[in-house]
Amino acid sequence: MIQEYEPEATRRHAGDVESSRASRGWWDRNADEYQSEHGAFLGDDRFVWGPEGLDEADAGLLGDVEGRDVLEIGAGAAQCSRWLAAQGARPVALDLSHRQLQHALRIGRDVPLVEADATALPFRDGSFDLACSAYGAVPFVADPVRVFKEVRRVLRPGGRWVFSVTHPIRWAFPDEPGPEGLSVSASYFDRTPYVEQDEEGDAVYVEHHRTLGDRVRDVVAGGFRLVDLVEPEWPAWNTQEWGGWSPLRGNLIPGTAVFVCERA
Length: 264
Ligand SMILES: C[S@@+](CC[C@H](N)C(=O)[O-])C[C@H]1O[C@@H](n2cnc3c(N)ncnc32)[C@H](O)[C@@H]1O
Hints:
The protein is of the alpha/beta class. 28% of the residues lie in helices and 23% in strands. The chain has helices at residues 16-42, 56-59, 79-86, 98-107, 144-154, 212-221, 247-250, and strands spanning 8-11, 69-73, 90-95, 113-115, 128-134, 155-166, 194-197, 203-207, 224-230, 256-263. The strands form two sheets. Strands 4-3-2-5-6-10-9 form a seven-stranded mixed beta sheet, with helices on both faces. Helix 1 (16-42) runs parallel beside helix 4. S-adenosylmethionine binds at residues 20, 23, 27, 42, 74-76, 95-97, 100, 117-119, 134-137, 140-141.
């Protein structure tokens, strides 16, 4: 008989290896639910930067993508890569989770897929013109500078690296979409990771918090220049909730931060 357990939520240290192992397991177990819950909003071939619904077709944060080699990191079911391909780019969609990539295959076999960890990219130096990530990998790794250095290595000179993460200010509030999510409950400055662990104390889900200043320093330490920091406002058309992201909170505090960087 399979023993059901309720993971315990806590804040504690989690290193590179434990974080990657937890992410792979969690996304493999939860990919079906993620895609059935959010697939319609994400669209099969749309490029959305986060729950606010900021669309790359409107934002143009990557610049001109036509004819460019683009690496999408933490691609999930590769919806963004499919949009990039439709614009004339040559995308490669990379993800740690086998199950997420199976969803990519279910939607279509039109984009090259790579199963790998963002902390060790299996590509030659200077393989891509652009790299992007919508909430993929960066929030889940213990050492984001390691990822950024890898991204820098595989980018050609002047290449753009654009990634979105949960806005750091959200870490000071409960992850709730309603009014209970509007009162500060934790220190913004506490970088201790959020961890869900099983009965043996092994992490089954890990998310890492970096303050806004940490993120800027990480970008620079990774060999990039910060070109823009976009904080999408909640649009009137978007009435859906996505976990702790909701119209109520989105109208008051930012929920997503999109970092636009260029290879220094
Ligand atoms: C919130 S989902 C975002 C997926 C997709 N970008 C989207 O917008 O739907 C995060 C994705 O990052 C992937 N991921 C987490 N840690 C990773 C890592 N270290 N390397 C590569 N992918 C990772 C997960 O497997 C998951 O598919």
